[in-house]
Design a protein that fits this description.
The complex is a heterodimer.
Chain A lengths: L10 H12 L3 H4 L6 E6 L2 E5 L1 E12 L13 E6 L2 E12 L7 E13 L11 E7 L9 E11 L3 E14 L5 E12 L1
Antiparallel strand pairs in A: 1-2, 3-10, 4-9, 5-8, 5-10, 6-7, 6-9
Chain B lengths: L16 H12 L3 H4 L6 E6 L2 E5 L1 E6 L3 E3 L13 E6 L3 E11 L5 E10 L11 E4 L9 E9 L5 E12 L4 E12 L1
Antiparallel strand pairs in B: 1-2, 3-11, 4-11, 5-10, 6-9, 6-11, 7-8, 7-10
Classes of the chains: A mainly beta, B mainly beta.
Chain lengths: 187, 182
């Protein structure tokens, strides 16, 4: 409101335009160290927390369908608005000893459940393709990759879960995933 | 100066200068516009009722250099490195073009922290390439993200370090680091 000379200042005005507005500012909403503030609409902000999960162990996957690893990979539960930046990192390796004269592609992706239902997709995944010629070497290359994916969500509590699969061409191949990390920058 | 949880004003009570100073002046000085000092800064909660301005920064070393060290070291041109004021958290992204000259060898880039915090390089959060030689050297641009959550608040320097394993010479070029202070 605009204050006017000679108009009495009331407690109700101070509560609405001073107390309540201060409670909507960043310090008024701050509760968690390391969180940041995102606009949720005109004149409205929300505190968001950046979360991550990291699994140091390695898992082997032979399924061509998206699946959980055993033990399960990293999972992040985060309160988000309509968007988030999902950052995947992991070592990916394909066992070429099982692939003769073919190639296989290993994928590390993620699904979203909770307020949002988003299935894993090759387009939102790290990948590594290992080619193997007949009589070639038995060793495998490994690369630690990282990439961030911008996703549209339904605002609320969303669960982000790492998913895995291997697309095999030729005889059966194993995909190895090590040190998988999933970070969610909630917006 | 600190944030004071806004009081509820009561009709009939005198409005005092001390109240206006504590609940209007001091609180306004704790809001984002009052704390803004740099272009492209952003605001992070440091505790309940408290925020701070933070910055993002990046550095790059393009020179291609090598190491045979099996423990984290600087290359002939150290870095890249970034120094920023952080809270307990930071997001740090590293990337480089890497290759090795021996089958099965691993070329690795990690992050060390100095300053307010001392954290040695951690291979668990490295960027790496493992060669599948067959007589052909593979060069790949790879990267890694590390979410630090136990930093000591203050001025922290994040420096890229390099090493190799399983014998051979590792080569690194176009080395980059990005730090988002939280």
């Amino acid at each position: 409101m605009t204050w006017v000379a000679n108009v009495p200042l009331t407690a109700a005005q101070l509560n609405t335009f001073v107390r309540d507005n201060f409670n909507e500012t960043a310090p008024g909403r701050a509760t968690t160290a390391g969180s940041w503030f995102i606009t949720t609409g005109r004149n409205a902000i929300a505190e968001r927390v950046i979360k991550s999960a990291f699994d140091s162990f390695g898992v082997t996957v032979r399924s061509s369908n998206w699946s959980n690893a055993s033990p399960p990979g990293p999972i992040v539960v985060a309160e988000t608005g309509a968007q988030a930046l999902v950052w995947l990192t992991g070592d990916i390796e394909v066992d070429t000893t099982l692939v003769a004269d073919g190639f296989s592609t290993a994928y590390l992706g993620f699904e979203v459940t909770g307020a949002t239902s988003l299935s894993p997709s090759d387009e939102r995944a790290l990948s590594w393709t290992q080619m193997q010629a007949s009589g070639g070497a038995s060793s495998s290359a490994r690369y630690r990759q990282t990439y961030a994916y911008w996703v549209q969500l339904t605002a609320g509590s969303n669960t982000f879960t790492a998913k895995y699969r291997i697309n095999q061409r030729g005889p059966t191949a194993d995909a190895f995933f090590f040190r998988t990390q999933l970070a969610v920058v909630a917006l | 100066m600190t944030w004071n949880a806004p009081i509820t004003f009561v009709a009939g009570n005198a409005l005092e200068a001390a109240d206006l100073n504590a609940y209007v002046r001091d609180n306004l000085n704790e809001t984002a516009p009052a704390k803004a000092a740099n272009a492209t800064g952003y605001f992070i909660a440091t505790a309940r009722g408290a925020i701070a301005e933070r910055l993002c920064s990046a550095a790059v070393v393009t020179t291609s250099q090598t190491t045979t060290s099996t423990s984290p070291v600087d290359l002939a041109t150290p870095g890249p490195a970034v120094t920023l004021t952080t809270g307990t958290n930071a997001l740090v992204f590293i990337s480089a073009e890497m290759s090795g000259n021996t089958d099965e060898m691993i070329s690795m880039m990690t992050i060390a922290v100095t300053g307010a915090t001392t954290l040695a390089s951690d291979a668990e959060h490295s960027a790496l390439v493992k060669q599948n030689f067959d007589g052909v050297v593979t060069t790949a641009r790879v990267g890694a993200l590390r979410h630090f959550t136990t930093l000591i608040p203050g001025s922290n320097t994040f420096t890229a370090k390099y090493e190799q394993h399983n014998g051979g010479t590792a080569t690194f070029a176009n080395r980059r680091i990005v730090v988002i202070a939280l």
